[in-house]
Specification:
The protein is of the alpha+beta class. The protein folds into two domains: 11-76, Double Stranded RNA Binding Domain, CATH 3.30.160; 79-159, Ribosomal Protein S5, domain 2 (2-Layer Sandwich), CATH 3.30.230. The protein has five helices and eight strands; from the N terminus they run αβββαββββαβαα. The chain has a four-stranded antiparallel beta sheet.
């Protein structure tokens, strides 16, 4: 009996992936330059699950594949209030600071490209963001994801207060 090999796409077709950045670096050798590529990919289902990953390879497609696999392994759950955030949050990650503010319905995602990828794939539809300091895509993605995971609902705050 033959078994079909399951690929990552067979396992989780509901996840959408977005390439945020591709970096090219070169190494000079006797015969010329050898190029390498690094990819940053964000994966999410638009319903509160999102993750990011990086991959390096000699070819762009292989780097994207590796980054996608890493992103699928690093998925986290995000708690949202309707289609926006519970409260304003400011997060510092490396030299990047990001301010995320919940917005009224119909506002849309007002954000830079790197933060927009994370927010849209997490399922956030109305949010205002501002990035301070470094705008390196890897730091912005990490800070945005950290800000989303730090969200607490009113019930969670009340439970924390009751305990203490």
């Amino acid at each position: 009996m033959a078994y079909a090999k399951q690929t990552q796409q067979d396992v989780a077709p509901e996840f959408e992936e977005r390439v945020v950045a591709i970096n090219r670096c070169s190494k000079v050798v006797k015969g010329g330059r050898r190029f390498g590529f690094a990819a940053l990919v964000v994966v999410g289902n638009g319903k509160g699950k999102v993750g990011y990953g990086t991959g390096k390879a000699k070819e762009v497609s292989e780097a994207i594949r590796k980054a996608t696999e890493a992103a699928r392994k690093n998925l986290v759950e995000v708690h949202l209030k309707d289609k926006t955030l519970h409260h304003t949050v400011q997060v510092k990650c490396n030299s990047t600071r990001i301010l995320m503010h919940p917005a009224a319905p119909g506002t849309g995602v007002i954000s830079g490209a790197a933060a927009r990828a994370v927010l849209e794939l997490a399922g956030v539809h109305d949010v205002l963001t501002k990035t301070f300091g470094s705008t390196a895509p890897s730091s912005v993605v990490r800070a945005t994801l950290e800000g989303l995971t730090s969200q607490r609902s009113r019930e969670q705050f009340n439970a924390l207060r009751a305990r203490g």
